[in-house]
Amino acid sequence: MSDSAEPLPPLLDEAVLNQVAAYLPAAMLETNLHRLAELAEALLGLLSPGGACVVEQVHRLAGSSGMLGFRRLAAACLRFEAACSPAFPAKAAARAELRAVLEATLPEITCRLSG
């Protein structure tokens, strides 16, 4: 997590998701939410402590989650991407943050699929 006192973005920005839902057919939105859940679940499985840096998967998840309004997940993905730089000393902390945000966000994605 960031050392600054910035508030965390919400898990889900309802306004963003509602805007997307207004333009996409319901079936396409559901497909995108399923893909987001699959990406998140797959990445969660790869984020074991000391595991490889999975920048490409994290980058895809950052874009997908941000587009659908899952702002906290997108922000955590971006911090993790930055942490994979050799100049960034806190890779383990960024990995732990991303894992925690994934675990918090997956139920919210699933809820959107059920509703």
Automatic annotation (TrEMBL):
Coiled coil: none annotated. PROSITE patterns: HPT. Transmembrane segments: none annotated. Keywords: Phosphoprotein, Two-component regulatory system. InterPro entries: HPT_dom_sf, Sig_transdc_His_kin_Hpt_dom. The modification Phosphohistidine is found at H59. Residues 17-115 form the HPt domain. This is Hpt domain-containing protein. It comes from Paeniroseomonas aquatica.
